[in-house]
Amino acid sequence: MTIKKTGVRVVLVAAAAIALAAPHLATAQSAAAYPQEPIKFVVPYPAGGVSDVSSRAIAMALGQKLGANMVIENKAGAASTVASTYVAGQKPNGYTLYAAPVSIVINPALQGAVSYKPYESFTPISMMMKAPFVLQTNKDLPVKNAKELVELIKNNPDKYAIGTSGVGSINHLAAEYFIKQFGLKMVVAHYKGGMPAAQDMIGGQVQMMFSAASEAMPFISSGKTRGLAVTSMERMSTLPDLPTMNQALGTKDFEATFWLALMSPAGLDKGLQTKLSSAMQALGQDAELRQKLSQLGIELNTSTPEVVTANLKRDEAKWTTLIKDLNIK
Questions:
Q1: Cα separation of 118 and 316, whole Å?
Q2: CB of 319 closer than 8 Å to CB of 169
Q3: Nearest-angstrom CA–CA distance, 98 and 44
Q4: DSSP structure string for 225-254
Q5: Structure confidence by residue, pLDDT tens digits, 28-45
Q6: DSSP label at 261?
Q7: What does pTM read for this prediction?
């Protein structure tokens, strides 16, 4: 009887061990076999823009690393809320990936209510890219650098105007951040897009703006506008002569960048998250891709999932505080 009981006990222990190991074995096997079908890659902007073009380039390069076909789906609308809501409702099986923008944490404050939760609805995988803005001015404005610009505005309150690409856009928030940081009084003029604002800046209707680098570079190089500084913590390789805002104005934490991060619907298993994040980090060493994006004013920026979450929290704290303080809607 004792031998039989011991035998039963051994069988039960072995069975329990197998049962406990089964989920981990399944995860490892699914990660090893992934992908077995095309991957849907959701971009929250219309086809043809810089964010779309750069997302496609990164998606295609990732697809080559994974050995998968990437199917790009553009789901524009409501400042990316349409895409975020759509992705949040998809299955977390690794076959829906999202080029999630910084607005994923800004929209809840701007729009009042959204149908997703920035942290609970998504699984972070890796950062994708970041795009600093360029502070540029009308070429006839009598300033040569950012410090002179601040002094000019301070000495002439409410005389000058700064353009934006629309209420709640990152370059609008950058403008408000600039005004608040240096105690300036000026008009904030909103346009439907960066290019209409830039055209009015060239024409003198507004005197300055924070422009996407891809839009600013042709104007600066042709002498139509004057570039003063960039809003990243480091200088841009495509505009090496322009200082950062911190270098130009003696600040320490002036940063305003548009970024995209790779995410999936919440619930992605850890094995797939690790495999995708590792592939993205390897992609960060792709010099050809980095150069291609650099020509668009985009910086390739890959990371661990933890860095994605840290960026979300940092920009949520910064921009939602500004939005609430200024009651931006």
A1: 10
A2: no
A3: 8
A4: EEEEEESSSS--TTSTTSPBHHHHH--S--
A5: 447 889 999 999 999 999
A6: E
A7: 0.88
CB 109 within 8 A of CB 320: yes
Residue 253: both structure tokens together: 């934490």
The residues, ordered by sequence, that sit 6+ positions from 135 with a Cβ below 8 Å of its Cβ are: 146, 149, 178, 208, 209, 210, 227, 228, 229, 230, 231, 245
- For tokens 């390739």, the residue is 300
Distance CA 189, CA 62 (A): 39
The answer for residues whose C-beta is within 8 angstroms of residue 301's C-beta and 6 or more apart is 127, 128, 129, 130, 259, 284
Q: Report the 10 Å Cβ neighbour count for 258.
A: 22
Please write the tens of the pLDDT for every residue from 52-101.
999 999 999 999 999 999 999 999 999 999 999 999 999 999 999 999 99
H helix and E strand count, the chain:
12, 10
Q: Write down the H helix ranges in 34-169.
A: 50-66, 81-88, 103-111, 146-155
The residue count of the chain comes to 329
